[in-house]
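Dear support,

I submitted the protein below through the web form. The confirmation email said the job was done, but the results page showed an empty box. After a refresh the structure appeared. I'm attaching both so you can tell me whether what I see now is the final result or a partial one.
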Amino acid sequence: MFRLVPRWACSHGHLSFCERNLSRKYHSDRTLIEELTCRGFVADVTRPRELNNHLRKCSRTVYAGIDPTAKSLHAGHLIPLLCLLHFQLRGNNIIALGVRLALLAIPSGRSAEREVADAAQVEFNASKLTSAISSFFSRAAVYAASRGSVQLSAISEVQVFNNITWLRDLNLLDFLRSTGAHFRVNQMLTRDSVRSRMSAQQGINFTEFTYQLLQAYDFYELYRTKGCTVQIGGSDQWGNILSGLELINKAQLGRATAAEQSNEKGFALTTPLLTTSSGEKFGKSAGNAIWLNEGLSSYLDFYQFFLRTADADVVKYLKMLTLLPVEEIESIVKDHESRPEHRIAQRILAEEVTLLVHGEDGLSAAKSATEALFGTDHSSLRADRIIRSLHNDPRLVFCGEDEMFTEFLPNLAALHGLLPSKSAARQLVLAGGLYVNNVPVRDPRLRLTRDSLLDSRVAIVRAGKDKHLVLVLK
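What the results page shows now:
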């Protein structure tokens, strides 16, 4: 019933007048699906030619599901969010659906059963994500406008819904009759998410097995009430999205005319599960998630995460996570390859993604903090600028005069978590690995003085190459 297509080479077709009005220079003369493919967003898509025609005719409604298993969006969410953004910038309406996956411990390509989350925690997370999603798209619209992609006034607002709204009161018998009757168990068993769990030692429970019907119902409900015709998801959700298309088409059979019944309704588009060149899951740093909330991952940490991108990954990330034109990215890469030691591509990537997620203020803070902690010349640094750039950063510690000038510096480093113990701090001094304001500390009994502080207020203490503590005199 559904035809799959693999990734295809970028082509440059001709756009209708309607689509050209929605087009901006960030995507040249490519159709939306061609643009997404050029940028690496497309793992699979149903009926691509028909989808292109469908999107050309008028504004459409598109949705992606966001799982509220955490209280913040993280870097891994950037892929579906940016994919939605491309649809939004072409004049389409977008929906982010908060889905209560954690309440059911559903399968998603995992080999082990997911832990069932506390209902109150999931509800709390969902409320936080609603605000975070709205904030992301507000800043993304400003970013897009600054890049000449579209006029700010022309961008429609994201709609955020929660599927608990219609699932909470869904009658089981009615659900089995209206939805379950349209599916065959043997076909449900062929879904990758189900097969991978069935082959594992734990197997799969009934709740997990039937989740694909609930996700299918979500798509059907949004199609029926919001006119949503396209669902976006990760490649591990492909089978579940196809189930939604199946339900949409079968549930409409009894109400449609003969002519309408011959036309397939709805489309599916999945994005690849992004990993680094070393095989690690994208969005993790030393095993920890990189959050889009500056209270969980500081502006500095967010910026540095992308600045540390490997050469093998930077082109892929520039295409997927920025709105820079593909042709401009190709030029950046050529410049980068001629001078790889300057890490030109990584710097542009870090600036663009930080600007997208955190805006001008966040980018300014990240660059100022980077200059303070990783720069070699501290002569122009000012205390107030350092403090502003590290606002809410755990590395920033305020000390009274008694503590700042009475404790030995290695002890201060240990007391505030830069090093695990005072003895470890003293050993690092003897090994020549502890620095204050880029000057090696030679004496384990060194005490700071006001004259040794930057701008008479700040001491930037470094252990090794990249572990920092910023002490500020109250």
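Response: this is the final, complete result; the empty box was a page-load delay. The longest helix spans residues 344-374.
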